[in-house]
Design a protein that fits this description.
With 173 residues, the chain is mostly beta strands. It is built from 1 helix and 13 strands, in the order E-E-H-E-E-E-E-E-E-E-E-E-E-E. The strands form 3 sheets. The protein has a 6-stranded antiparallel beta sheet with strand order 1-2-3-10-5-8. A 4-stranded antiparallel beta sheet has the order 4-11-12-13, with no helix packed on it. The longest helix is centred in the first third of the chain and has 5 residues. The protein is globular. The mean pLDDT is 92.
Length: 173
């Protein structure tokens, strides 16, 4: 039995075989092993995971958030990170923050060793994300399901399209 308080996770004592093995269903190069550190402490509003991407693999798929911020802190290895239209080399000590400003981001490990990092973000439940390389928008309403919609089939109307023009006649009340 552990003598550690609930609020402490000693990552050196974690069993790598217990990590959650995740693959993005729309990216065959995706492979990531995650240990949800925040879950082990009872946190519910902020997610923090210890993540490992093997050589030649990618974390997920290029995406941009509109509702939930995300971050990555590199612990070991070297990777390539897409930020907007730039690919940047990253290594131990590098921090990446992704606000909800529409910037597309993605983590890949060209090798030769594992890329190990902390990653985290908000857990507000709902999210609308863009997946530009897939031509899709992802919608999540907090039920653990991501719904993908082809971006080409989304009708976008600016708020101004809803405003009546001054010469529109509307019945008075």
């Amino acid at each position: 039995m552990s003598t550690n308080p609930k609020h402490l996770v000693r990552t050196r004592d974690l069993d790598a075989a217990e990590a959650l093995h995740v693959r993005h269903p729309l990216n065959p190069a995706s492979e990531i092993f995650m240990t949800r550190l925040s879950d082990r402490t009872g946190m519910t509003k902020l997610g923090v995971s210890l993540a490992r991407v093997p050589p030649g693999k990618e974390a997920f798929v290029p995406h941009a958030h509109t509702m939930q911020e995300e971050w990555v802190y590199i612990l070991e290895g070297h990777g390539l990170v897409l930020v907007g239209d730039r690919v940047i080399e990253v290594g131990p000590g590098d921090f990446l923050g992704y606000p909800t400003d529409g910037t597309v981001h993605h983590v890949a490990n060209p090798g030769p060793g594992d890329l190990v990092f902390l990653q985290g973000g908000e857990r507000s439940g709902s999210e609308v994300a863009r997946f530009p390389t897939l031509g899709k928008i992802g919608l999540s309403v907090g039920d653990g399901v991501m719904r993908f919609v082809d971006e080409a089939h989304v009708e976008s109307l600016p708020f101004e399209a809803w405003l009546a023009s001054p010469d529109d006649s509307t019945p008075s009340r």
